[in-house]
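Q: For a teaching handout, I want to show students what a protein-ligand complex looks like in token form. Below are the inputs, and the small molecule is thiamine diphosphate. Please produce the holo structure.
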Amino acid sequence: MAKMNLLQAINNALDIAMAENEKVICFGEDVGVFGGVFRATSHLQEKYGRARCFNTPLVEQGIIGFANGLAAQGHVAVAEIQFADYIFPAFDQIVNESAKYRYRSGNLFDVGGLTIRTPYGGGISGGHYHSQSPEAYFAHTPGLKIVVPRNPYQAKGLLLSSIRDANPVVFFEPKRIYRASVGEVPEEDYELPLGKAEVLKEGTDITLLAWGAQMEYIEKAAEMAEKDGISCEVIDLRTILPWDMDTVVNSVLKTGRLVISHEAPLTGGFAGEIAATIQERCFLYLESPIARVTGLDTPFPLVLEKEYLPDHLKIYEAIKQSVNF
Amino acid sequence: MSQTTKTIEVIHKPEFIQGNEFKFPIFQVLKQDGATYKGAKLPEMDQEEALKIYRTMVFTRVLDERMLAAQRQGRLSFYLQSTGEEGTVVGFAAALDDRDMIMAQYREQGALAYRGFSVDEFMNQLFGNELDYGKGRQMPIHYGSAKLNYMTISSPLATQIPQAAGYAYGQKLEGKGLCTVTVFGEGAASEGDFHAALNMASVHKVPVIFLCRNNGYAISTPSSEQFAADGIAPRALGYSMRAIRVDGNDILAVYLATQAARKIAVEENEPVLIEAMTYRLAAHSSSDDPSGYRSKKEEDVWRAKDPIARMRNWMIKKKWWSEDEEKQLQDSMRQEVLDAMKNAEKRPPPPVESLVTDVYDEVTPQLHEQLEKLKMHVRKYPDAYPKSAGRMTHG
Ligand SMILES: Cc1ncc(C[n+]2csc(CCOP(=O)(O)OP(=O)(O)O)c2C)c(N)n1
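A: Here is the structure, written as tokens, with thiamine diphosphate included.
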């Protein structure tokens, strides 16, 4: 085991994937010599050469279009979009192309080798355009997988699975905890399953569900609630598409209560999808309405980002309301 | 007229035309020592205008130095300098009509300063206080001013370029003889939006000036990894648009080129592309360290071409400026920036209500509800949200 932060774990996963399979190719803006603006691709060009790790011109639609072609040809494309806020110029390539290659060709062609890595989320004083959590836009697109790790151990295992998965994956990296989150990470190769949630803590009174950078806050809120004698079950969804219904359903059948939190705005956020499904499957077991703790239905602010973001206090309040309903 | 009605030369061997056979010349007027090239056409610029340009360049340099220092001290979350590119930025602004629209990228604080954005206005935006026109929503340096015809900066690169074509089309329909200038880096010129913009503008004949600051780098990516061709200027030819390449550190050349481009745009309703060759002497931003991707030696070559020094040398030669005046100007500007910074820092942030305004023209019922819920929460935990708790009215 080694101590790694989330970025180092990602770098390590890329290194392993590139060493193992010479078809793996990493590219994006500033990923070459510089190693990416956050240094996630550090030293890869040195090790594997410019043909397999390179800077692209500054054009996201080009990066993903290129990646789609490369993956259709049989290579394993790992494309970086510098910030998730800048994934939108590539939206057409992802939503209409990556996601539908296999379906529209009757499985003659696919871009399963594609993985799109991109830092997402707020809490870094990034303001309007360096803070968004756009997972819900992609969750509306059949054919994609969407993965969000919460710590270094997961980041490595989930990224390796994503790169080796036979479907295009959008891999959102919580940039707020890139360096803050340090943990034990095995140096060897390992994978964590896509499409499986992880139960971090078992409990009986209420289920708390989140992903990525929000996990830190729901764990903290759970601690606060436990002091009030509320037993919390804490689940990390890890994969947003396809999401692990069974784990969440089983938990809510047991606890009868559910709080979901995410940074993205409330309306149309992925929590809404989860809430609808859970009330469908667990209706008679629910003791209180499913609560969503999310960003506001506004763009992301700068100065008042603390007010905007869901945090442990807001989740704690939601837990109390749910339990005292 | 369809293409087939023109006479076209016919060849009988497959001869290809190589894109980079044509090399764009570079327009230059001013030497580094302040002398001008023999035979160069000089602009009609009087001392007053020259001083205004010069002062603005010095102001933005001082602002950049001070603000970068403030960022290093943790007083500011982020900053982004224009150092090394002041000649391009102030030069183009000076050649325009103040009513022309500017749609910039983010390294163009000099253009805004030239139009009269005050040091306090700069500071209010940088500190995101209650007087910031952008209400503390965007990162530092995302300035905007409706009064000064300066469109608020948006971080996603190149989005302003096709918008400029549209804005200019509107100006053309109004027939006021105005144009739009849009500024972008050579990196941003790779985006699809750039290509879409040039095509739209040339097809629809709009009075827009596309101004590329080719400063050699897009963050760490050198221009050699950005494009294979001879820079950005030749791209205009593919869209049947006029283009000029200019020494971006030569204020007089930039000024003249922009004046000429403006004439084409406004009088002929034709788009024009200007590629200003310059160099980003500073780091990309306060989050960047250029020592990871370029040499000090390379920077020094460009430091010797400093556009501010070049203009100062010219003005001293003309007896329009002296070393004494220089020192006074530097000192007074430093003081002005420091005082303004202290004032702006002390001002409170925008009130919590500003979170939900301007999303739509009116606050929707949902947003009302979300705001009320948030306010209740902040009242309950005032220590956790110090920026808004202190200013919230009770009740
Ligand atoms: C669509 C988009 N992609 C990526 C970024 C991140 N980014 C900000 S500045 C920058 C480099 C821009 O380089 P250039 O256009 O050459 O301008 P310069 O900084 O050199 O003045 C990048 C990649 C962004 N802001 N928008």
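A: Two things your students might notice: Chain B has a mean pLDDT of 96. The longest strand of chain B covers residues 208-214.
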